[in-house]
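thought: fold this chain, then report.
action: predict
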Amino acid sequence: MLFAIALLVLGLVGVVGGALIIWRRDGGSAVPGIVIVVLGAVAAALGIALMMFPGVPA
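observation:
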């Protein structure tokens, strides 16, 4: 359960951090921020899924 919560928190931090990178890119490429947002969303979704299924030892 602790792993799932940590994964959820780190995923949300990744989404917010990636959004800040996209917002403050100053004319540069937005690709790194988009990649971070996507990876953060996947991590957050995995954390939520691990918490929803009680049979998964996380």
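thought: worth noting. The chain has a mean pLDDT of 90.
final: tokens above.
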